[in-house]
């Protein structure tokens, strides 16, 4: 399908901007926050939002808890995208509100440490530690820690997939599902076909992804470990059921779909959703783009089925 006209207009508007790898990282972060502030607010109905701090050896990890209208909800640990380097709780606030409402789940968004100041494995360590803390504190969160979900978009999808591997191999806690939205799962030194097809001109570029990987792994990270690039993992058995959402016009599309194939080959219940006519990051437009709204509703339905919640009925 052709690129959605709204997305094509946004891509054209950003065509003259300098490549992000030529800018100071703080400049890129400010620009992302400013762009997020221009989005329409999420209209989803939830019961409440509150910020909290998760204790960690290096100091508290900021987090934000979204509580659904429904009682006794499962708990989604949400890890935001942004190349492991540029986003935060606020840039993904709308998306967490939608996930909370559509899935009928409590959502705990984790403001993990960012690269390049804190490269791999610091972001992953924060998210794994936050998951374990959440499993030990269900009363504080008002959620059922027996129904944990790991979720994330882009770099956050990478962390969610890696956290599922890490928790499987280190005694848990058990996870009932993983939601990976246009995840970054393979190092660009071994690019897929979509890396070439959508290398530039569709928003997220091959050059930008190479830059983000350098921030995360350093200049010498061309052969990353599996916990940095989960598609390299040899053993994908005994992982939680997965929903992998990809975008048609995205450099990361093929690696997400390849990971889904490998999960199925390993006996893991896996569903894929390729959203046509959209590019990387389209879910941020949930209040403006019909395809994003429909995708959130499908995601919510899948999570309700996996976790046994009622949630909001999909249209």
Question: What is the C-alpha radius of gyration, as a whole number of Å?
Answer: 18 Å
User: What is the overall shape?
Assistant: globular
Beta fraction? 15-25%
Q: Largest beta sheet, briefly?
A: 8 strands, mixed
Oligomer: single chain
N→C terminal distance: 23 Å
Element order: H for helix, E for strand? HHEEEHEHHEHEHHEHEH
Mean pLDDT: 94
Q: Give the helix/strand class.
A: alpha/beta
Number of strands: 8
Write the layout of secondary structure elements.
Blueprint (H helix, E strand, L loop, with lengths): L4 H9 L11 H13 L10 E7 L6 E7 L6 E6 L13 H11 L2 E5 L11 H15 L1 H4 L2 E10 L1 H15 L7 E5 L11 H5 L8 H12 L24 E8 L3 H13 L4 E10 L10 H18 L8
Task: Tell me briefly what this model is.
The protein is α/β, with parallel strands linked by helices and 315 residues long. It is built from 10 helices and 8 strands.
Task: Please give a structural write-up.
The chain has 315 residues and is of the alpha/beta class. It is built from ten helices and eight strands. The chain has an eight-stranded mixed β-sheet with strand order 1-2-4-3-5-6-7-8, with helices on both faces. Helix 9 links the parallel strand 7 and strand 8 (270-279). Helix 4 packs across helix 6 (155-169). The model is unreliable at 310-315 (pLDDT under 50).
